[in-house]
Amino acid sequence: MDNLTEEKMILADPFEGDYGEDEYVLSDKMVTARKQHECFNCESTIYAGERHRSRSGVHPDDGLNQFRWCNACCVAMAADWDDPREDRFYSRSVACQMEEEEFNRC
């Protein structure tokens, strides 16, 4: 986890300064996947047995929401990677997509 604890990963607010700030968070924790999911950020596959972040909440406009982030994106958020582009996770997303494509070729 690149010297980052799961506690530090949870402290990073993925919606800071974004639309999600009005959300009432019901649950926000690191969990072990029991089945396959998709990362909200990079859209890579989160496989059963993989540690990842799971967050559920209620937004006044959208109702109940569920978000999941892969471990790689959690590390990027916790490190507060400052990408010069508007989307600070863009490079992480590209890397995850390339990794996913390579995995699917096997």
CATH topology: first zn-finger domain of poly(adp-ribose) polymerase-1
For the record, the CATH class is: Alpha Beta
**Helix coverage percent:** 25-40%
Order of helices and strands: HEEEEEHH
- Structural domain count: 1
Give the low-pLDDT segments: none
**Class computed from helices, strands and strand pairing:** alpha+beta
Individual helix count? 3
CATH architecture: 2-Layer Sandwich
Q: Would you tell me the overall average pLDDT?
A: 78
Major sheet? 3 strands, antiparallel
Give a topology summary.
Elements: H1 6-11, E1 24-32, E2 37-38, E3 45-46, E4 51-59, E5 63-69, H2 71-78, H3 90-105
Antiparallel strand pairs: 1-4, 2-3, 4-5
Describe the structure.
With 106 residues, this protein is of the alpha+beta class. It has helices at 6-11, 71-78, 90-105; strands at 24-32, 37-38, 45-46, 51-59, 63-69. The chain has one domain (6-105): first zn-finger domain of poly(adp-ribose) polymerase-1 (2-Layer Sandwich), CATH 3.30.1740. Helix content is 28%, strand content 27%. A hairpin with a 6-residue loop joins strand 2 (37-38) and strand 3 (45-46). It is globular and about 35 Å long. The two termini are 25 Å apart.
